[in-house]
Design the sequence.
């Protein structure tokens, strides 16, 4: 199973990128980041719709799609592990995690989701969401393997 993070915006070198790399290197599932970025000025709704099209165009047709959004389901780490374990066991080739930009997700993106995942009711900067997600996926891997990194 491959993990594909598709995100609006470019992550510059810095602590967020270092943390993302650190967790990605500890994952057995290969994790790739695909960035989409078009900064031409548009009114908010049009910008959101454009970013949504870019995210969806970058999403493989057969992917299991997890959209990161504050309005989604606040799964426990164990529940996320179970969710990913089910994808692994059912032969899913790619799990795609979609992270929005400053304006959040277009309804078309939410409609494509198999799971809308919340990292809690607070709004996090999209660049921080990448390493936070990578940590939770690494934690999920540890839960599935019975590794002591995760202590319930
Ligand atoms: C700065 S936030 C967007 C805020 C936007 N105003 C909104 O209402 O969604 C950028 C992206 O980070 C991710 N994100 C931020 N906070 C999140 C949370 N609590 N749970 C899940 N994803 C979150 C989402 O993918 C979001 O589209």
Sequence:
């Amino acid at each position: 199973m491959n993990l594909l993070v598709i995100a609006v915006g470019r992550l510059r070198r810095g602590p967020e990128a270092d943390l993302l790399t650190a967790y990605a290197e500890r994952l057995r599932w290969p994790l790739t980041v695909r960035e989409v970025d078009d900064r031409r000025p548009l009114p908010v709704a049009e910008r959101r719709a454009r970013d949504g099209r870019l995210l969806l165009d970058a999403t493989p047709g057969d992917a299991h799609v997890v959209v990161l959004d504050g309005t989604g389901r606040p799964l426990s780490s164990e529940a996320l592990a179970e969710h990913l374990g089910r994808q692994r066991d059912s032969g899913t080739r790619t799990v795609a995690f979609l992270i929005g930009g400053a304006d959040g997700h277009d309804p078309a993106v939410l409609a494509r989701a198999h799971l809308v995942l919340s990292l809690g009711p607070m709004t996090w900067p999209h660049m921080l969401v990448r390493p936070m997600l990578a940590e939770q996926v690494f934690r999920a891997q540890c839960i599935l393997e019975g590794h002591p990194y995760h202590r319930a």
